[in-house]
Amino acid sequence: MLGNTFGRIFRVTTCGESYSGGFNKKEDIPKELYGGLIAIADGVPPGIRLTPAMIQAELDKRKPGQSKLDSPRKETDRVYIFSGVMEDSLTTGAPVGLVIPNVDIEEIHINQYRDYKDVVRPGHAEFTFFKKYGEYADWVGAGRASGRETAGRVAGGAVAKAILDTMGIDVIGFVVESHGIKAGPVSYELAKANYRKNELNCPDLEAAGVMIDDIMKVKDEGDTCGGIVEIIAKGVPSGLGEPVFDKLSATISHGIMSIGAIKGIEFGAGFGHAVMKGSESNDEPYYDKESGKVKFKTNNSGGFLGGISNGEEIRIRVAVKPTPTISLRQSTVNMAKLENTILQPITRRDPSLCPRIYPVCEAMVRMAILDAIYMAKGYSAVAGISEKWEKL
Ligand SMILES: Cc1cc2nc3c(=O)[nH]c(=O)nc-3n(C[C@H](O)[C@H](O)[C@H](O)COP(=O)(O)O)c2cc1C
Predict the structure, then answer these.
(1) Could you tell me the distance, in angstroms and rounded to a whole number, from the CA of residue 72 to the centre of ligand 1?
(2) Cα 146 to Cα 19: distance, rounded to the nearest angstrom
(3) Whose CA is nearest to atom 3 of ligand 1?
(4) Count of helix runs (H) and strand runs (E) in the chain
(5) Ligand 1 centroid distance, CA of 62 (Å)
(6) pLDDT tens digit at each of 392 positions of the chain
(7) CATH code at 5-268+303-390
(8) Other C-beta atoms within 10 Å of 206: how many?
(9) Nearest CA residue ID for atom 6, ligand 1
(10) Using CA positions, which residue lies closest to atom 1 of ligand 1?
(11) CB-hemisphere CA count at 13 Å for 139?
(12) How far apart are CA 1 and CA 129, in angstroms?
């Protein structure tokens, strides 16, 4: 399998699957080492404060089994720092190694997958994994295509957060739509004030109640809901992003679109630009004497011009598909027998992925921004841009 590292200079590599460890239970191995997720963050500067609690706080947002909207799978998502951190919880500059054991990997759950290991579940990645890995494809809980994989990203993203915090850069994700029910406009301030105030993490508290009732109704029907997650990055300096292939908007898209179940991304007015006139779409710049900076009267661009950050809030919206596992009968194919068949899965699942995906989006956006800072700083150190232009 290729493609398990994200980033160019600040790089996070992850490994681990949904039920890894379930086949590795032996008396001479401590159960934390049966299997699970590993994240290695490379490019961490020395002297950054990093404690297990800081990483745990991010993982706890994503972990399953916290509310009626999550999968009932009981994973503690306990993180252990294995390397790169020494006395007083300060990084040494060495790669930071993080381990998150899988603990809820009982035979009963593995056998639920064994019973239909050759049958592709509609909406899941099994068909394409069979195409690429044949009969060796991981059949327990979707392997690397499982949402469980994203715990490694969140751990890596927590390392990026520790570094971005020292620069005053804040990234916040929240839910703005579920199954067609929309929240009102959400400012950065409202998102901060109401962060995680309900199970869906929707800052419009009234709309959240309606969304949650609707999700529970759909769940009772054996079905699942899609939705929209929004992410704001505040305090991002202008000038991040390298034309042409490593524009910051492009590397953020790369990170976001690599998360399972995300089907679309837009920045600022996004697809809304398609129905605008140029005079409506353009964000007019002005010179703000007080700050000595060029600012913009509106932010339809979502914080970018030419894919480079323009100093405004970065605003991202992502479309999350409904959880593919549903309780309803669906037709599909048995890949071993090459027979059409019917499937009615009984495995654990989330009725909506939105409340578990926003922390993963935060993590990917943080990694992309931090990586872009390294690239921009490295480039400007050599390119020698005069201070007059750089400080705008
Ligand atoms: C955090 C997270 C949790 C997920 N949990 C589940 C789940 O419980 N059940 C499920 O069917 N899919 C779940 N998924 C979605 C599948 O992983 C994903 O839809 C599948 O791998 C197919 O990939 P695609 O939707 O990108 O095509 C989850 C995804 C994420 C990011």
Answers:
(1) 15
(2) 9
(3) 147
(4) 10, 18
(5) 13
(6) 999 999 999 999 999 998 888 888 888 888 889 999 999 999 999 999 999 999 999 999 998 777 788 776 677 899 999 999 999 999 999 999 999 999 888 888 888 888 888 999 999 999 999 999 998 988 888 889 999 999 999 999 999 999 999 999 999 999 999 999 999 999 999 999 999 999 999 999 999 999 999 999 999 999 999 999 999 999 999 999 999 999 999 999 999 999 999 999 999 999 999 999 999 999 999 999 999 999 999 999 999 999 999 999 999 999 999 999 999 999 999 999 999 999 976 666 789 999 999 999 999 999 999 999 999 999 888 887 777 777 77
(7) 3.60.150.10
(8) 10
(9) 147
(10) 147
(11) 18
(12) 10
Query: How is residue 109 written in tokens?
Result: 């759950």
Does the CB atom of residue 353 touch ligand 1 within 6 A? yes
Q: What is the position in ligand 1's atom list of the atom closest to the CA of 142?
A: 21
Q: Is 7 in the pocket of ligand 1 (CB under 6 A)?
A: no
* CA-based R_g, the chain, Å: 22
Residue ranges per structural domain of the chain: 5-268+303-390
Give dist(CA 140, CA 114) in Å, integer.
7
Shortest-distance Cα residue to atom 21 of ligand 1: 145
Q: Which two tokens stand for residue 288?
A: 């703000």
Could you give phi then psi for residue 80, rounded to 5 degrees? Answer: -120, 130
Nearest 5°: the CA angle 147, 203, 50 is: 55
In this structure, are residues 259 and 357 in contact, taking their beta carbons and an 8 Å threshold?
A: yes
Q: The tokens of 223 are what?
A: 């079905």
Structure-token match 């751990």, residue found? 155
> Quick check: CB of 147 below 6 Å from ligand 1?
yes
Nearest residue CA, atom 7 of ligand 1?
349
The rounded Å distance from CA 146 to ligand 1 centre is 6
Query: Which amino acid residue places its CA nearest to atom 28 of ligand 1?
Result: 147
Residue with tokens 């309606």: 210
Are 260 and 141 in contact, with CB atoms under 8 Å apart? no
- C-alpha of residue 134 to centroid of ligand 1, in Å: 21
